[in-house]
Amino acid sequence: MVDIEVVRGDITEENVDAVVTAANESLMGGGGVDGAIHRAAGARLAEAGARLAPCHAGDAKATPAFDLTPPVRHVIHTVGPVWEGGIADESRILASCYRRGLEVADELGARTVAFPAIATGVYGYPPAEAARIAVDTIRSAATSVRLVRLVAFDEDTYALLVSLVDTA
């Protein structure tokens, strides 16, 4: 079973093999965590993403990490669901983001991966439900990844994730 750690901070500063970004379908960068990762990795990340696009909601694709500080070698791009009140299969799609992120990490040989809170920003997914889905999906995934670090940007997300991880 994969170990899960929760930290509060900047995902671009994580000491892991791969970071996951909450991308849009173009994989060319956006706002929030995706924008931060793209700024830190440099312009080549958007160029590489454009060659792989589109990436549909629930899927994940990988690029090199370019200018991110080693040991980060890969950026795994996943597209979360836009919250529509729970009527558009959002929970299944969000779970798929975490599952596919781990599958791609396995394909890359990554043993340590940092995930943000996918879809809780401009996509509007309710943070408490998103946190539960993230933790449950990671815990139940068949993966060779040894460590998943859930990186919370704010204190509220951090507290939600800690409460779920600490109940194990």
Automatic annotation (TrEMBL):
Gene3D superfamilies in the record: Leucine Aminopeptidase, subunit E, domain 1
InterPro entries per the UniProt record, alphabetical: Macro_dom (IPR002589), Macro_dom-like (IPR043472)
Residue ranges annotated for the Macro domain, each copy included: 1-168
Source superkingdom: Bacteria
Name recorded for this polypeptide: O-acetyl-ADP-ribose deacetylase (Regulator of RNase III)
